[in-house]
Amino acid sequence: MTAETSQTLDRGLRVLKLLADTDHGLTVTELSSKLGVNRTVVYRLLATLEQHALVRRDLGGRARVGLGVLRLGRQVHPLVREAALPALRSLAEDIGATAHLTLVDGTEALAVAVVEPTWTDYHVAYRAGFRHPLDRGAAGRAILSARQCPASDPGYTLTHGELEAGASGAAAPLLGVTGVEGSVGVVMLADSVPERVGPRVVDAAREVADALR
């Protein structure tokens, strides 16, 4: 801690991070041990976070992340979209295909930013807000590949006809961005994806990840 930081706020944020990393919640005793502070401090932190609906406690006394976190999360998408747009524009213009940033939303893939090329005669219409299962389409499959290989770079994923007949997709996961799980990709009307597209999509995913760090 430095003179410019708040110890109480730091501890509160650490509580939220600890709770976010568990599915079954944590007791006051467990939080006290993990934070290295006494139970009285933990009780005060939890009471404050509960007032803002950021934490809730079940009947057994275990603390869990509260629904207030969801309200904060809704504001993340516009910030992520703004940071990703320059890389998406460059990708769309370079490849001549619709570029998109897709994030995980529960069990689905959600397109949060889409950029269409300006110079092509035709391209796939792909709208922000479009949802699909994670195990269908290049965007979702790229995210799943990163989950399966967390310690390495899984490269890019190619698909054809999984979300729209006649359309092919290429996507690469965002890597090394804390709290953001997603992918960058393109979708095009083609029987197959040209060889240069995959590496170009990987580069764009890295650009977006760098912008979000």
UniProtKB/TrEMBL annotation:
<dbReference type="Pfam" id="PF01614">
    <property type="entry name" value="IclR_C"/>
</dbReference>
<dbReference type="InterPro" id="IPR050707">
    <property type="entry name" value="HTH_MetabolicPath_Reg"/>
</dbReference>
<dbReference type="InterPro" id="IPR005471">
    <property type="entry name" value="Tscrpt_reg_IclR_N"/>
</dbReference>
<keyword id="KW-0804">Transcription</keyword>
<dbReference type="InterPro" id="IPR036390">
    <property type="entry name" value="WH_DNA-bd_sf"/>
</dbReference>
<dbReference type="InterPro" id="IPR014757">
    <property type="entry name" value="Tscrpt_reg_IclR_C"/>
</dbReference>
<dbReference type="GO" id="GO:0045892">
    <property type="term" value="P:negative regulation of DNA-templated transcription"/>
</dbReference>
<dbReference type="InterPro" id="IPR036388">
    <property type="entry name" value="WH-like_DNA-bd_sf"/>
</dbReference>
<dbReference type="InterPro" id="IPR029016">
    <property type="entry name" value="GAF-like_dom_sf"/>
</dbReference>
<dbReference type="GO" id="GO:0003677">
    <property type="term" value="F:DNA binding"/>
</dbReference>
<dbReference type="InterPro" id="IPR011991">
    <property type="entry name" value="ArsR-like_HTH"/>
</dbReference>
<dbReference type="Pfam" id="PF09339">
    <property type="entry name" value="HTH_IclR"/>
</dbReference>
<keyword id="KW-0238">DNA-binding</keyword>
<keyword id="KW-0805">Transcription regulation</keyword>
<dbReference type="GO" id="GO:0003700">
    <property type="term" value="F:DNA-binding transcription factor activity"/>
</dbReference>
<feature type="domain" description="IclR-ED">
    <location>
        <begin position="68"/>
        <end position="213"/>
    </location>
</feature>
<protein>
    <submittedName>
        <fullName>IclR family transcriptional regulator</fullName>
    </submittedName>
</protein>
<feature type="domain" description="HTH iclR-type">
    <location>
        <begin position="6"/>
        <end position="67"/>
    </location>
</feature>
